[in-house]
Amino acid sequence: MTVATRSQAELDLLCINTIRTLSMDAVQAANSGHPGTPVALAPVAYALWQGFLRFDPADPIWPNRDRFVLSAGHASMLLYSLLHLTGVRAVDPKYEILGEPSVPLESIKKFRQLASKCPGHPEYRWTSGVETTTGPLGQGVATSVGMAIAGKWMAEHFNRPEFPMFDFDVYAIAGDGCLMEGASYEAASLAGHLKLSNLCWIYDNNRITIEGSTDLAFSEDVATRFIAAGWNVTRVGDANDLEMLSRAFQTFKGEQHRPTLIIVDSHIGYGTAKQGSHTAHGEPLGEQVIAEFKERFGLSPEAFHVPGGVYDRFQEGIGRRGKSLRDAWYVKFDEYKARFPELAEQLELMQRRELPEGWDRDLPSFPADEKGLAGRAASSKVLNAVARNVPWFIGGSADLTPSTKTRIESPEAGDFQAGSYGGRNLHFGVRELGMGACLNGMALTKVRPYGSGFFIFSDFSRPAIRLAALMEIPVIYIFTHDSIGVGEDGPTHQPIEQLASLRAIPNMYTIRPGDANEIVEAWRFIMKLKHEPACLVLTRQNVPTLDRSRYAAASGLARGAYVLADPPSGAEPEVILLASGSEVPLCASAFERLIADGVAARVVSMPCWELFEHQDVSYREAVLPPHITARVSVEQAATFGWERYVGPKGHMIGMQTFGASAPLKELQKKFGFTVDNVVAKAKELVSGATAPA
Ligand SMILES: Cc1ncc(C[n+]2csc(CCOP(=O)(O)OP(=O)(O)O)c2C)c(N)n1
Ligand SMILES: [Mg+2]
């Protein structure tokens, strides 16, 4: 049949079958991957992309584009096929469009191979058009809620009468696995509460996961659960029914007050000999099954074949619609720029993750103070100074804002709720993982988000934190109650291994400042980050503010670790005390005692290991001269990792066990975080080091 004689319906089916065959062929060539779900969902994705998605393949970063999230990341070939067939262009890391295809056919042929633009699971910032990294089930849908939140916020902040600059929708495809994961539940509950009508999840109800039928472990009524959470729920009884799919998307578009869940009944591996079998899930279909499928549907037996008319069909659909919407938006934006230059400038800065000029002009500086203040209290002042000058800096906590002190106080900031989407204070509820994923979605949409909670519960956010680091997005986490210093709440609330575990995440900064002025410097550093998340780890309890006329300037934080104090005599140090956070002032006190006792001590404040590791070797060796082997580290956390700075001859004062419930002072004594103990350990090392071998 020639292109000219094909009916519209036949062309649609040809496009859908091309998505299918590209997916099967790629998985077959890689000899690994998940073919069955892309095959089954091809019509769903086609109906959405071709008929509804407001997305310009030639400009995949147009700010008001609809977002598409493939939460079932194992079905990555579905997305890669779409990115290829619609001709999405590549964008470089500077957000300048390059014009090459984002996913050339060559990359599909090299699915899952080194350097291919088609890795096993979709990766943001690696493949243009991938809106978020997915693969850990549940994370994608949860992230989509953050995108919808940011969409609502941006609409409220930027839109003006006659200027609807933001009205994009967010679509996400979820499988059974996504809906079993707690992350999706947390996020769905929040989305329902916030009435995010710009959010549409498509649930691939194929009743199959890896082990087999969902009867094994998943028998709840999903529709009822989502209705209970405040969602609009609709159903499509057959994933191949383009008409019904289209009607479901229309229903979503018409819904003004609730997020929408479209439950789509499908058969994994549709149309193949493995239809409905979980063997279609995670292994190649096999040459023979693929050949039979192609024959059955009258398709070329050739692998990776794209029939004539398919590229054009996509160009005439999503391509043309996307371009005209995108172009119209930029025409409007030019007018907007003339009428609202300040807002337009904000919008442009946000897109490039830049800060307004003078963003740091109100940052405080704290006078020396023996009594000092809590890290969370100092940070609150800094956060509010930042918030004054960076309007798109928004965030909240997992129900702990009064404790974490992360509220943007100015009355205009307000709360983000249904009906007040311009509010800058978010209430994520007691949902640390949902919060983490939402923060990712918000950062992907280019607002600058922060989230906060107790440090111990950073574990609950960890899967999302890890993805932020992997995606290279600048999410800010403010974790307070950072050590056994929380005291009476006891070991369930006392972080031990959290510092070590966060420090182990690549491409992230974990910063535990030593006093209020280091907190200022930490914020100064964090706000300038564009492609790394950061965890700011702060005390609940008061910490002295160091006298910076006596000790080195807090700006040393920018190098990760710095010499806070050296022997006043100018003598070479005999012993080095290393500490982070609340143990820095403790070491400063120990230092004073050692100096008085005639021991030449140095104190190194070490708020951020990762930053220190980025310094050149001469700086690192100036701070920690290799020949000075008498070193004592002091940190109210697991000692794990300090070996590298303390060396084989040093001593680590830290936690080897969980903490205990008791007043702080008693805990400090029990676990050795006292001036007496630090001094004693330092002296032991010095005398040991000077004793004849
Ligand atoms: C958090 C998480 N746990 C486990 C996996 C491994 N895994 C990949 S796909 C899958 C089953 C998914 O089933 P479903 O979502 O129904 O997708 P389908 O098999 O129907 O495509 C599992 C367990 C994962 N990717 N993420
Ligand atoms: Mg399934």
Automatic annotation (TrEMBL):
Mg(2+) binds at D176, N206, I208. GO terms for molecular function: metal ion binding; transketolase activity. Binds 1 Mg(2+) ion per subunit. Can also utilize other divalent metal cations, such as Ca(2+), Mn(2+) and Co(2+). It is an enzyme of class 2 (transferase). SUPFAM superfamilies: Thiamin diphosphate-binding fold (THDP-binding) (SSF52518), TK C-terminal domain-like (SSF52922). CDD domains: TPP_PYR_DXS_TK_like (cd07033), TPP_TK (cd02012). Homodimer. Belongs to the transketolase family. This is Transketolase. It comes from Tautonia sociabilis. The gene is tkt.
